[in-house]
Design goal:
The chain is of the alpha+beta class and about 170 residues long. It folds into two domains: about 110 residues, no CATH class; about 60 residues, no CATH class.
């Protein structure tokens, strides 16, 4: 029973450690052993799968939830179900982000009246709106390896035009 107790505790603590602020405290089910002591024979850790208001925050939260659900050496069937639910929410967040980016592209075409300059693709745009940055972000959010990583993008200041450009964007 001691071995099972240690295994259960390691399993639940793995969920909690990886889940961080999105994971609750472990709850254990106990049985009394022949020596009169209580041993953990089962357990659970809640993982918050509530989407955030910002789809980018939801993306980060669900990536962590997938990692937390699959953190133990031998994830259970329930662990796999939680990971699948988090992946579905990840897909929804990616769709929302792509929709926002598409809307931003359409809105950004035209003239920036305050600066008196064109904001069409390829011309004087801010770092997040540069064509290179948008392409890097879109490529990252579509890539299968992005599921288990937190997105990051390396931006560098261009010495020729002064704008920010993506420099080999990818995951950290």
């Amino acid at each position: 029973m001691r071995e099972r107790d240690a295994e259960v505790r390691r399993h639940e603590q793995a969920h909690q450690a990886v889940g961080g602020p999105h994971a609750g405290a472990p709850r254990y089910e106990y049985e009394r052993g022949p020596d009169g002591r209580l041993y953990a024979v089962g357990g659970s850790v809640s993982i918050d799968l509530t989407p955030e208001a910002d789809p980018r925050a939801t993306l980060a939260k669900m990536e962590r939830a997938v990692r937390a659900a699959l953190a133990p050496e031998e994830p259970s069937g329930q662990d796999h179900r939680v990971a699948a639910e988090a992946r579905a929410l990840l897909a929804e967040a990616r769709t929302e982000i792509r929709a926002e980016n598409s809307g931003t592209e359409k809105k950004s075409e035209g003239v920036d009246a305050a600066a008196g300059r064109s904001t069409r693709e390829g011309e004087n745009q801010d770092a997040a709106g540069s064509p290179e940055a948008r392409r890097a972000i879109e490529a990252y959010t579509r890539s299968p390896e992005s599921e288990n990583k937190t997105p990051s993008l390396n931006l560098v200041s261009c010495s020729q035009c002064g704008n920010m450009h993506a420099a080999g964007g990818g995951a950290a």
